[in-house]
Amino acid sequence: MTDHTLARAVPALPSRFERPGLTGFAMTLGILLFFMWSVQRTGVSLSEFIQGFPQMGRLVGEMLPPSTARLGAVGKALLETFQMAFVGTVVGVLISVPIAVLATRHLTPHPALYHLARNLIAFARTVPDLLWALLFIVSVGLGPFAGTLAIIVDKIGFCGRFFAEAMEEVDRGPQEALSAIGADKLSLVMCAVIPAAMPSFINTSLFSLEKATRSSVVLGLVGAGGIGIELKVAMDLFNYDEAATIILAIFALVILVEQASAWLRRRVI
Amino acid sequence: MRADDLVVRGLCKGYEGGAPVLAGIEFAIPSGQSVALIGANGAGKSTLLRCCMHLIQPDQGQVHLLGHDLTGLNPRALRHMRSKVGFVFQKHNLVPRLSALSNVLHGAIARSPFARSWLHGLASRELREEAMRCLARVGLAHIAARRVDKLSGGQSQRVAIARALMQSPRMMVADEPVASLDPSSGEEVMRLFSNLVRKEGLTMLFTSHDLSHAIKYADRVIALRQGVVALDAPSAELSVATLRALYD
Predict the structure, then answer these.
(1) Alpha helices of chain A — where are they, by DSSP H?
(2) A59: number of CA atoms within 13 Å, CB side?
(3) Inter-chain residue contact B82 with A187, CB threshold 8 Å
(4) Among all residues of chain B, which has the CA nearest to that of A194?
(5) Looking at beta carbons, which residues of chain B come within 8 Å of A180?
(6) Is the pLDDT of residue B102 over 60?
(7) Inter-chain contact B89–A190, Cβ cutoff 8 Å?
């Protein structure tokens, strides 16, 4: 075979990278410039970070050994933190399911309800849980109830969106089969959609519980119950050894919840 | 003379931006007759079946199902009419994660009280016994509690047939019921399906790419080509070679 025929048999390879168009190039350049400006504005500095090491070392030194003087109170606050997360997640998930059905395009009874549900979910999601906690503290007072309410609203925003997406993505075949049998919309949701979307529901709910456990620690900082307030008081009074105990307790709780939810995921899904 | 269970008059259906899939389909199926609907891919067989149940709205034409014109029916009445027709799909369309028994119970959705046939845990003893009898008729009573996503293709299709039987239907419609099965399972399922339908004296309309099935299991064959009925003849007068010529 001659070189000439070989050249004809193997067509030219396309280039490895596509040459960007003018718009693509301008966008990349714009994002890069914005990043550099943001670095400057936020004062990100490697030298200052390195200079801060001794301070950090001093703090860690004062934290050790962690204090065991208030273990009982810390344990009680930790339990309250988890209870806030648990109740908030369970109630939030239960409220999210019907809202998510309304926010699922092919299941909603009316387009107006679809938009209403979507906007409600978006509103609940875009307002940070800390802000919800501040609002609920004003309405129901300081304490874990305000924090639990904040978690419920946060879960409606989080689970409502993911539940609706899961229901939109499930295989439509069983729904068509049940429609052909004469099922109404409620039966379709209960018999075909929810069972098919259940793995995603369980996954999202367990992830919500993990997220709520971490949130409920922070909510305590503004007085919405839980262990956060204990941490704030310990830090404000420079009781770093006690703060270390609280941080370790929070770490243990978060790891425990993550491990338990991973185990449940494996068992149920 | 037997009354017609399904009458289709001037049925047209097209999808946006494409040629019409169905262009004036006309036929009638008398009660108790078994009809095979054949045609190349894209000939409109599945669309026609779905239009017959108003799962897809036809653009024009009329469908009379079991003596009722489906065009003017309100959603409740339409659901009632659909409940009298068992529909078996190519991919069986069972609800995953649920047991075979729960899936069969869904066949009673239109006639059982609120929520009673959603899950076998909620169903009355009578409904559950009836569902078990339907499973027994397809030879699967022993796997009633097993999740359907753990079943083989052939078993899944038999559960789908049991679900259709649970409807106590007057007519059966099947969209390529054995297309996703291997030849041996396909033959077994088709034989079971046909025997059950004949034993109950039900009207049957099924689509198939297996021309020998069309001749063997149907009293009559209707062939679609380019959106119209290209052939409508008793299966006894047809051969596989004659039908194959319609695909050229």
Answers:
(1) 3-9, 22-41, 46-51, 53-63, 71-102, 111-126, 129-140, 144-169, 173-181, 185-188, 194-219, 228-236, 240-268
(2) 9
(3) no
(4) B95
(5) 53, 55, 82, 85, 87
(6) yes
(7) no
C-alpha closest to that of B147 among B109, B95, B90 = B95
Distance from CA of B115 to the nearest CA of A (A): 7
| Residue B1 scores a pLDDT above 70 | no
**Statement: A72-268 belongs to CATH 1.10.3720.10:** yes
Contact between chains at A181 and B53 (C-beta distance less than 8 A): no
Chain A residues contacting B, CB < 8 Å? 171, 173-174, 176-184, 187, 190-192, 195-196, 198-199
Determine the distance in angstroms separating the CA of A211 from the nearest CA of chain B, rounded to an integer: 27
In chain B, the residue whose alpha carbon lies closest to the alpha carbon of A180 is: B82
- Where helices occur in B22-117 by DSSP H, the ranges are 45-52, 75-82, 100-105
Kindly state the DSSP code that residue A193 receives in the 8-state scheme.
Answer: I
**CATH, range B85-168:** 3.40.50.300
CA distance A20 to B185: 53
Beta-carbon pairs below 8 A across chains A and B: 69
For residue A177, the chain B residues in CB contact (below 8 A) are 87, 89, 92-94, 160, 163
Q: Please report which helix (H) or strand (E) contains residue B222, including its range.
A: strand B220-225
Q: From 3.40.50.720, 3.40.640.10, 3.40.50.970, 3.40.50.300, which CATH number describes the B1-84+204-248 domain? A: 3.40.50.300
A127-172 per-position pLDDT tens digit = 998 899 999 999 998 889 999 999 999 999 999 999 999 999 999 9
pLDDT > 70 in chain A, percent: 97
Give the Cβ contact number of residue B203 at 10 Å. Answer: 23
Counting beta carbons within 10 angstroms of the beta carbon of residue B67, is it exposed (0 to 12), middle (13 to 18) or buried (19 or more)? exposed
Question: Cβ–Cβ contacts within 10 Å for residue B76, how many?
Answer: 10
Chain A partners of B119 at a C-beta cutoff of 8 Å? 191
